[in-house]
Amino acid sequence: MLRLITAPFRFIRWFFKGIGSGISNVGQSFRSFFSEEPEDTPLADSFSKTIEHPTDILVHLDALRKHLMRAVLALLLATALAFAFSSQLMDFLAQPVEGGLDAMRAIDPTEPLGTVMKVSLLSGFAIALPYIVFELYLFIAPGISVRARMWGLLAIPAAFVMFVGGMVFAYFIMLPTALDFLLNFQGIQTQLRPSTYFNFITRVLFWVGVSFEFPLVIYIVAALGWVDAKTLLKQWRLAVILIAVVAALVTPTIDPFNMAIVMAPLILLYFLGILLAVVAQRGRKKKLIAEEL
Protein backbone atom coordinates (compact mmCIF):
# COMPACT_ATOMS: atom_id res chain seq x y z
CA MET A 1 0.00 0.00 0.00
CA LEU A 2 2.81 2.43 0.91
CA ARG A 3 4.54 1.73 -2.39
CA LEU A 4 1.32 2.46 -4.26
CA ILE A 5 0.81 5.74 -2.39
CA THR A 6 4.36 6.92 -3.02
CA ALA A 7 4.33 5.87 -6.70
CA PRO A 8 3.45 9.36 -8.06
CA PHE A 9 6.23 10.95 -6.00
CA ARG A 10 8.74 8.34 -7.14
CA PHE A 11 7.70 8.92 -10.74
CA ILE A 12 8.21 12.68 -10.35
CA ARG A 13 11.61 12.03 -8.77
CA TRP A 14 12.58 9.66 -11.59
CA PHE A 15 11.37 12.16 -14.22
CA PHE A 16 13.36 15.10 -12.89
CA LYS A 17 16.37 12.89 -12.22
CA GLY A 18 16.31 11.82 -15.88
CA ILE A 19 16.07 15.43 -17.01
CA GLY A 20 18.99 16.37 -14.77
CA SER A 21 21.06 13.47 -16.08
CA GLY A 22 20.26 14.43 -19.66
CA ILE A 23 21.22 18.05 -19.07
CA SER A 24 24.45 16.92 -17.41
CA ASN A 25 25.32 14.67 -20.37
CA VAL A 26 24.58 17.44 -22.84
CA GLY A 27 26.71 19.86 -20.83
CA GLN A 28 29.58 17.38 -20.69
CA SER A 29 29.36 16.75 -24.44
CA PHE A 30 29.24 20.49 -25.04
CA ARG A 31 32.35 21.09 -22.94
CA SER A 32 34.30 18.27 -24.57
CA PHE A 33 33.23 19.49 -28.01
CA PHE A 34 34.92 22.84 -27.40
CA SER A 35 37.87 21.66 -25.32
CA GLU A 36 39.11 18.27 -26.59
CA GLU A 37 41.57 18.45 -29.46
CA PRO A 38 41.54 15.54 -31.95
CA GLU A 39 44.43 13.10 -32.02
CA ASP A 40 47.14 14.48 -34.30
CA THR A 41 47.86 11.40 -36.40
CA PRO A 42 49.71 11.58 -39.74
CA LEU A 43 47.60 10.71 -42.76
CA ALA A 44 49.81 7.73 -43.67
CA ASP A 45 49.43 6.27 -40.16
CA SER A 46 45.67 6.78 -40.23
CA PHE A 47 45.44 5.04 -43.60
CA SER A 48 47.55 2.07 -42.48
CA LYS A 49 45.50 1.80 -39.28
CA THR A 50 42.32 1.68 -41.34
CA ILE A 51 43.77 -1.06 -43.53
CA GLU A 52 44.75 -3.11 -40.47
CA HIS A 53 41.38 -2.61 -38.74
CA PRO A 54 38.78 -2.05 -41.48
CA THR A 55 35.93 -2.52 -39.02
CA ASP A 56 36.85 0.79 -37.36
CA ILE A 57 35.49 2.65 -40.34
CA LEU A 58 32.05 1.17 -39.72
CA VAL A 59 31.68 3.43 -36.68
CA HIS A 60 32.21 6.50 -38.84
CA LEU A 61 29.89 5.18 -41.54
CA ASP A 62 27.18 4.60 -38.94
CA ALA A 63 27.64 8.15 -37.63
CA LEU A 64 27.45 9.50 -41.19
CA ARG A 65 24.26 7.50 -41.77
CA LYS A 66 22.61 9.06 -38.71
CA HIS A 67 23.60 12.59 -39.74
CA LEU A 68 22.37 12.04 -43.29
CA MET A 69 19.08 10.57 -42.07
CA ARG A 70 18.44 13.63 -39.89
CA ALA A 71 19.38 15.92 -42.80
CA VAL A 72 17.03 14.08 -45.17
CA LEU A 73 14.25 14.20 -42.57
CA ALA A 74 14.73 17.97 -42.23
CA LEU A 75 14.62 18.29 -46.03
CA LEU A 76 11.38 16.29 -46.20
CA LEU A 77 9.73 18.38 -43.48
CA ALA A 78 10.87 21.63 -45.10
CA THR A 79 9.65 20.45 -48.51
CA ALA A 80 6.27 19.51 -47.02
CA LEU A 81 6.05 22.97 -45.44
CA ALA A 82 6.96 24.61 -48.75
CA PHE A 83 4.38 22.46 -50.57
CA ALA A 84 1.69 23.61 -48.12
CA PHE A 85 2.49 27.21 -49.10
CA SER A 86 3.36 26.48 -52.75
CA SER A 87 0.63 28.79 -54.09
CA GLN A 88 1.96 31.74 -52.13
CA LEU A 89 5.56 30.89 -53.10
CA MET A 90 4.75 30.70 -56.80
CA ASP A 91 2.76 33.92 -56.65
CA PHE A 92 5.73 35.61 -54.99
CA LEU A 93 8.26 34.26 -57.50
CA ALA A 94 6.03 35.28 -60.41
CA GLN A 95 5.68 38.90 -59.27
CA PRO A 96 8.63 40.18 -61.38
CA VAL A 97 6.52 39.31 -64.45
CA GLU A 98 3.66 41.61 -65.38
CA GLY A 99 0.49 39.68 -64.71
CA GLY A 100 2.20 37.09 -62.51
CA LEU A 101 0.98 33.52 -62.86
CA ASP A 102 -1.95 34.61 -64.98
CA ALA A 103 0.49 35.60 -67.72
CA MET A 104 1.85 32.04 -68.01
CA ARG A 105 0.47 29.17 -70.05
CA ALA A 106 1.29 25.47 -69.62
CA ILE A 107 1.35 23.26 -72.72
CA ASP A 108 1.93 19.86 -71.11
CA PRO A 109 -0.65 18.07 -68.89
CA THR A 110 1.93 17.37 -66.17
CA GLU A 111 3.65 20.77 -66.35
CA PRO A 112 1.70 22.52 -63.53
CA LEU A 113 2.18 19.59 -61.13
CA GLY A 114 5.84 19.18 -62.01
CA THR A 115 6.46 22.90 -61.58
CA VAL A 116 4.79 22.96 -58.16
CA MET A 117 6.83 19.96 -56.99
CA LYS A 118 10.08 21.47 -58.26
CA VAL A 119 9.43 24.82 -56.58
CA SER A 120 8.48 23.05 -53.34
CA LEU A 121 11.61 20.91 -53.39
CA LEU A 122 13.95 23.82 -54.11
CA SER A 123 12.24 26.01 -51.50
CA GLY A 124 12.43 23.18 -48.97
CA PHE A 125 16.13 22.75 -49.73
CA ALA A 126 16.74 26.48 -49.18
CA ILE A 127 14.85 26.35 -45.86
CA ALA A 128 16.63 23.21 -44.63
CA LEU A 129 20.06 24.20 -45.96
CA PRO A 130 21.42 25.59 -42.64
CA TYR A 131 20.44 22.43 -40.77
CA ILE A 132 21.83 20.15 -43.52
CA VAL A 133 25.16 21.99 -43.38
CA PHE A 134 25.05 21.82 -39.58
CA GLU A 135 24.63 18.03 -39.65
CA LEU A 136 27.61 17.67 -42.01
CA TYR A 137 29.57 19.98 -39.73
CA LEU A 138 28.75 17.80 -36.71
CA PHE A 139 30.08 14.78 -38.60
CA ILE A 140 33.46 16.33 -39.41
CA ALA A 141 33.79 18.37 -36.20
CA PRO A 142 35.42 15.60 -34.07
CA GLY A 143 38.29 15.42 -36.57
CA ILE A 144 39.15 19.12 -36.64
CA SER A 145 40.70 21.43 -34.07
CA VAL A 146 38.70 23.32 -31.45
CA ARG A 147 39.53 26.60 -33.19
CA ALA A 148 38.20 25.26 -36.49
CA ARG A 149 35.03 24.09 -34.73
CA MET A 150 34.43 27.60 -33.42
CA TRP A 151 34.96 29.09 -36.87
CA GLY A 152 32.61 26.50 -38.32
CA LEU A 153 29.80 27.46 -35.96
CA LEU A 154 30.24 31.11 -36.89
CA ALA A 155 30.54 30.41 -40.62
CA ILE A 156 27.28 28.46 -40.97
CA PRO A 157 24.87 31.30 -40.04
CA ALA A 158 27.08 33.87 -41.77
CA ALA A 159 27.04 31.84 -45.00
CA PHE A 160 23.26 31.48 -44.82
CA VAL A 161 22.75 35.22 -44.28
CA MET A 162 24.98 36.07 -47.24
CA PHE A 163 23.26 33.44 -49.39
CA VAL A 164 19.85 34.93 -48.58
CA GLY A 165 21.26 38.41 -49.19
CA GLY A 166 22.34 37.36 -52.68
CA MET A 167 18.89 35.98 -53.46
CA VAL A 168 17.23 39.17 -52.19
CA PHE A 169 19.52 41.23 -54.44
CA ALA A 170 18.75 39.02 -57.44
CA TYR A 171 15.00 39.09 -56.86
CA PHE A 172 14.47 42.79 -56.14
CA ILE A 173 17.21 44.44 -58.22
CA MET A 174 18.56 42.13 -60.89
CA LEU A 175 15.54 40.14 -62.11
CA PRO A 176 13.12 43.05 -62.78
CA THR A 177 15.68 44.68 -65.08
CA ALA A 178 16.70 41.42 -66.76
CA LEU A 179 13.12 40.26 -67.35
CA ASP A 180 12.09 43.63 -68.74
CA PHE A 181 14.93 43.34 -71.26
CA LEU A 182 14.20 39.71 -72.16
CA LEU A 183 10.42 39.95 -72.47
CA ASN A 184 10.44 43.14 -74.54
CA PHE A 185 13.45 42.59 -76.77
CA GLN A 186 12.86 43.95 -80.29
CA GLY A 187 9.15 44.14 -79.52
CA ILE A 188 8.77 40.36 -79.86
CA GLN A 189 5.91 39.05 -77.71
CA THR A 190 7.00 36.29 -75.33
CA GLN A 191 4.60 33.69 -73.96
CA LEU A 192 5.94 32.31 -70.69
CA ARG A 193 5.67 28.67 -69.66
CA PRO A 194 5.62 27.93 -65.89
CA SER A 195 8.30 25.23 -66.12
CA THR A 196 10.67 27.41 -68.16
CA TYR A 197 10.15 30.52 -66.05
CA PHE A 198 10.55 28.86 -62.66
CA ASN A 199 13.61 26.91 -63.84
CA PHE A 200 15.09 30.21 -64.96
CA ILE A 201 14.32 32.21 -61.84
CA THR A 202 15.36 29.53 -59.33
CA ARG A 203 18.67 29.01 -61.17
CA VAL A 204 19.41 32.74 -61.09
CA LEU A 205 18.48 33.09 -57.42
CA PHE A 206 20.63 30.12 -56.44
CA TRP A 207 23.80 31.10 -58.30
CA VAL A 208 23.65 34.76 -57.31
CA GLY A 209 23.20 33.62 -53.69
CA VAL A 210 26.26 31.37 -54.03
CA SER A 211 28.32 34.21 -55.53
CA PHE A 212 27.56 36.37 -52.48
CA GLU A 213 29.58 33.89 -50.38
CA PHE A 214 32.72 35.44 -51.88
CA PRO A 215 33.82 37.51 -48.82
CA LEU A 216 33.34 34.58 -46.47
CA VAL A 217 35.48 32.33 -48.65
CA ILE A 218 38.22 34.97 -48.74
CA TYR A 219 38.08 35.32 -44.97
CA ILE A 220 38.36 31.58 -44.39
CA VAL A 221 41.34 31.09 -46.73
CA ALA A 222 43.03 34.13 -45.18
CA ALA A 223 42.43 32.75 -41.67
CA LEU A 224 44.05 29.49 -42.78
CA GLY A 225 47.07 31.42 -44.05
CA TRP A 226 46.64 30.46 -47.71
CA VAL A 227 46.38 34.07 -48.97
CA ASP A 228 47.02 37.53 -47.52
CA ALA A 229 45.26 40.85 -47.95
CA LYS A 230 48.24 42.52 -49.66
CA THR A 231 48.31 39.91 -52.43
CA LEU A 232 44.55 40.18 -52.93
CA LEU A 233 44.79 43.95 -53.21
CA LYS A 234 47.63 43.74 -55.76
CA GLN A 235 45.63 41.29 -57.88
CA TRP A 236 42.45 43.35 -57.99
CA ARG A 237 42.60 43.71 -61.80
CA LEU A 238 42.70 39.94 -62.23
CA ALA A 239 39.87 39.64 -59.71
CA VAL A 240 37.73 42.06 -61.76
CA ILE A 241 38.29 39.94 -64.88
CA LEU A 242 37.29 36.77 -63.01
CA ILE A 243 34.25 38.55 -61.59
CA ALA A 244 33.28 39.58 -65.14
CA VAL A 245 33.46 35.92 -66.21
CA VAL A 246 31.31 34.87 -63.24
CA ALA A 247 28.81 37.67 -63.97
CA ALA A 248 28.61 36.58 -67.60
CA LEU A 249 27.78 33.03 -66.50
CA VAL A 250 25.25 34.09 -63.86
CA THR A 251 23.54 36.90 -65.78
CA PRO A 252 20.52 35.59 -67.70
CA THR A 253 20.96 38.17 -70.49
CA ILE A 254 23.81 39.00 -72.85
CA ASP A 255 23.65 42.79 -72.58
CA PRO A 256 26.41 44.65 -70.69
CA PHE A 257 23.94 46.62 -68.56
CA ASN A 258 22.58 43.59 -66.72
CA MET A 259 26.08 42.15 -66.51
CA ALA A 260 27.23 45.36 -64.81
CA ILE A 261 24.37 45.05 -62.30
CA VAL A 262 25.82 41.72 -61.20
CA MET A 263 29.46 42.84 -61.37
CA ALA A 264 29.07 45.93 -59.17
CA PRO A 265 28.11 44.14 -55.92
CA LEU A 266 30.62 41.33 -56.58
CA ILE A 267 33.45 43.86 -56.90
CA LEU A 268 32.33 45.55 -53.68
CA LEU A 269 32.18 42.13 -52.01
CA TYR A 270 35.73 41.41 -53.19
CA PHE A 271 37.08 44.52 -51.46
CA LEU A 272 34.97 43.68 -48.41
CA GLY A 273 36.68 40.28 -48.49
CA ILE A 274 40.07 42.04 -48.45
CA LEU A 275 39.06 43.92 -45.30
CA LEU A 276 37.94 40.64 -43.73
CA ALA A 277 41.28 39.10 -44.76
CA VAL A 278 43.06 41.85 -42.80
CA VAL A 279 40.99 40.97 -39.73
CA ALA A 280 41.73 37.27 -40.23
CA GLN A 281 45.48 37.91 -40.53
CA ARG A 282 45.54 39.92 -37.29
CA GLY A 283 43.78 37.12 -35.47
CA ARG A 284 46.20 34.57 -36.94
CA LYS A 285 49.24 36.65 -35.90
CA LYS A 286 47.94 37.01 -32.33
CA LYS A 287 47.46 33.24 -32.14
CA LEU A 288 51.02 32.55 -33.41
CA ILE A 289 52.49 35.03 -30.91
CA ALA A 290 50.52 33.44 -28.07
CA GLU A 291 51.76 29.97 -29.08
CA GLU A 292 55.39 31.16 -29.14
CA LEU A 293 55.06 32.59 -25.62
Structural overview:
This protein has 293 residues and is mainly α. It has twelve helices and no strands. The chain has helices at 2-5, 7-33, 43-52, 56-84, 86-93, 111-140, 146-183, 194-211, 214-223, 229-234, 236-250, 256-292. The longest helix is centred in the middle third of the chain and has 38 residues, at 146-183. The radius of gyration is 26 Å and the shape is flat.
Order of helices and strands: HHHHHHHHHHHH
Shape: flat
The helix/strand class is mainly alpha
**Oligomeric organization of the protein chains:** single chain
Number of strands: 0
Beginning-to-end CA distance, first to last residue:
69 Å
What's the story with the biggest beta sheet? none
What value does the Rg take, in angstroms?
A: 26 Å
Output the number of helix runs. 12
Task: Give structural attributes.
12 helices, 293 residues, flat, mainly alpha
Compose a concise summary of this entry.
The protein has 293 residues and is mostly helical. It has helices at residues 2-5, 7-33, 43-52, 56-84, 86-93, 111-140, 146-183, 194-211, 214-223, 229-234, 236-250, 256-292. The radius of gyration is 26 Å and the shape is flat.
Question: Helices, strands, pairings?
Answer:
Layout: H1 2-5, H2 7-33, H3 43-52, H4 56-84, H5 86-93, H6 111-140, H7 146-183, H8 194-211, H9 214-223, H10 229-234, H11 236-250, H12 256-292
Helix pairs in contact: 4-6, 5-6, 6-7, 6-8, 7-8, 9-12, 11-12
